[in-house]
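REQUEST FORM: STRUCTURE PREDICTION
Request ID: SP-0412
Submitted by: Lab K.M.
Chain count: 1
Length (residues): 173
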Amino acid sequence: MADHRPELVDDALRALGATHTELREAHKRWQARLHSRSFPGGEMRYLTTLGRPESQARRQVGDLACKAVLWPLPLWPTLRFEILVAPGGAVWNEWLVREPGNPGPDLAALPSVAELPPWGCTVEEVLRGFTSAVPLVADAPSRARVGVTDPRSGDAFTVHFTWGLCQFVAPRP
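STATUS: Completed
RESULT:
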């Protein structure tokens, strides 16, 4: 997220009482785990790292029946880190979602799609909040993009997400 919103990362580090050095070290440890032959894969990777999840639920995504596993986040109390687990234990998606039962922000109240708040809405909220919203091809594994036509102006935008959280909105040609 620091690629797009370094100022928000700085604010988050201050809120967590952490330094950039600690952030880099945590990232280094996570990358070492991801590439270790002995570290478990699939769902076990997250259970080992994050501990017991807050909740689990069956989720139907198209033709695929999967399991959604959610953990709370100290930095974002109304969000959850979610993994979607396919039958057999493979994780096929990981991102931030709104906590169950929380509708999130009222995106229809914004004056324009261009006003979507960085770190203020999720992929699912944008897809639900705008009838014109369509998923676009992601530009990296942890990123998502959604095309949206503003209902008021007719202008086309691409909303960019990292780990499912809005980073920025750009005009679409």
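NOTES: The domain at 41-101 is CATH 3.30.1450.10 (Beta-lactamase Inhibitory Protein; Chain:B, domain 1).
Reviewed by: T.R.
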